[in-house]
Amino acid sequence: MYVSARCDYALRALLTLASDGVPRTAEELASRQHLPVSYLEATLLDLRRAGIVASRRGPTGGYRFRRDPATVTPADVMRALEGPLAEVRGLRPEAATYEDAAEPLQRLWVALRASLRTVLEGVTLAELAAGELPDALAALVADPDAWRSR
């Protein structure tokens, strides 16, 4: 799975926002995470359109969560910015059709999407900002094989 810079930057900014608990400007969020501010501003605008954050101008302005970070998952952010978590040639896995010996591929892609959902919907931004992982995800990370590149 490829995680775009856009999703990575958005999650980094949102975790900063969740850990602070107060509105922050795009400049503050970018500075804290060493991100390009103009790129982050465009990303935050998309997150605002998706209803994840809200913004306010003025001396006490900045970005804040529109939804409680305890209800927002990385999957929500990634879908808002990039679309479905798993696609095959631009199709959702259940819509990809195969013939003959390749027929099992559809089930493989559906299983892949289910696996992504388990991880990306299995933790909230509030939990991540607090440095917590649910037990199921912590068990995945605790497996030494998870850390090996292949």
Describe this structure in words.
- The chain is mainly alpha-helical and 150 residues long.
- It has a single domain (5-147), classed as Winged helix-like DNA-binding domain superfamily/Winged helix DNA-binding domain (Arc Repressor Mutant, subunit A), CATH 1.10.10.
- It has seven helices and two strands; from the N terminus they run H-H-H-E-E-H-H-H-H.
- A two-stranded antiparallel sheet has the order 1-2.
- The chain is globular.
Tell me what the CATH architecture is. Orthogonal Bundle
Number of domains: 1
What is the mean predicted local confidence, pLDDT?
96
Tell me the series of helices and strands, N- to C-terminal.
Answer: HHHEEHHHH
CATH level-four homologous superfamily name: Winged helix-like DNA-binding domain superfamily/Winged helix DNA-binding domain
Structure classification: mainly alpha
| Major β-sheet profile | 2 strands, antiparallel
Summarize, please:
By secondary structure, the protein is mainly alpha-helical. It has helices at residues 5-20, 26-33, 37-49, 74-82, 104-120, 125-129, 135-142; strands spanning 53-56, 62-65.
Q: What characteristics describe this protein?
A:
Arc Repressor Mutant, subunit A; two-stranded antiparallel sheet; 150 residues; 2 strands; mainly alpha; 51% helix; single chain
Topology:
Layout: H1 5-20, H2 26-33, H3 37-49, E1 53-56, E2 62-65, H4 74-82, H5 104-120, H6 125-129, H7 135-142
Antiparallel strand pairs: 1-2
